[in-house]
Amino acid sequence: MRTSKLLLAENVSKSYGDLLVLSDVNIDVGRAEIHSLLGSNGAGKTTFIKILATILEKDSGTVQIDGIDVEEFENDIRQIIGYVGQDTERSAYARLTVRENLLFFAKTRGIDQTDANERIAALSEIFGLENKVDSQFGHLSGGQKQSAVIIRALLHDPLLLFLDEPTKGLDPLAARKIRGHLKDYVSKKGRSIFLTSHILSEVEYLSDRVSLLYDGVIGITGKPEKLVKSIGFPEMVCLRKRSLEPSVIRTILAKEHVLHSIELDDHWIGFGIDDTYTGMESILDVLKATGTKSEIQHRHVSLEDAFIHYFGYTGEGFAAREVV
Ligand SMILES: Nc1ncnc2c1ncn2[C@@H]1O[C@H](COP(=O)(O)OP(=O)(O)O)[C@@H](O)[C@H]1O
Ligand SMILES: [Mg+2]
User: Fold this and answer.
1) Domains along the chain?
2) CB atoms within 10 A of CB 249
3) Fewer CB within 10 Å: N-end or C-end of the chain?
4) What residues does ligand 1 touch, defined as CB less than 6 Å away?
């Protein structure tokens, strides 16, 4: 049966002993969608993605993929999903070539060699790995290894690919390439991806929808641009906290065109403005009038700003100050 949602998880709970990691979590993934699960370290992202990918058992709740219950029909589910965990190095044989690794895996999946070679050619083109297919896995760069492991998870053409922090530990250029390849894959193949990350800029670039896992529950779900818009101001002027007397902050906030303030981190405070020129002018007026000197930055609001606005900054990640 073709369901409208490719993945539907309802009331999923999981504890390790006394530690409740997931508490009645609900999530869905559409067809041809990239849906990202965000959360700080230890939030439960890996636990959740492993449950969805049939690697770990949940305590309660239901998960269906393409209308099929993942626990009842585990083997059928494994035919329609791919999974890439966090340990890339140990996901393939270092001394075999990429092709040998992929052919070996294809065999365990019952894919014949001709089909497998065709798929290896097509996928290595999408993932920019054409020239490395006959190199030893152990000799590849971090980004190339990650691409090879992702290709392996895609060999049987799964409907849904699970990726647990796919760019963790990669240099920025390699991470950017992987993101481009993933986007390419979804647009060319119409398949879906569910990924975890704690990098907000990555999630903003990749995702059709984003969910934030905090304190065992999904605090917020939506399209990245909608989440950004929902905070109600398009731009921000950021000032150095240490340069600002509390009275100056209050005066700035009382100005027209200045809508809100966000503590961005230990050093910066952002003031939401509704218009570049009038907003900037209002803030500069206060700085001049009070003799305040501060470094100044102006920028469009990002997904990261939006999350900090809703969840607050604690120095370690997000705190549920206000949940929408
Ligand atoms: N096998 C396990 N046994 C006990 N506690 C675990 C186990 N796996 C993870 N945890 C704990 O569960 C919480 C969530 O871990 P994890 O799902 O790996 O989070 P994330 O991937 O978001 O960093 C953490 O506090 C972690 O220490
Ligand atoms: Mg993890």
Assistant:
1) 5-222 (3.40.50.300), 228-311 (3.30.70.260)
2) 16
3) N
4) 16, 19, 21, 39, 41-47
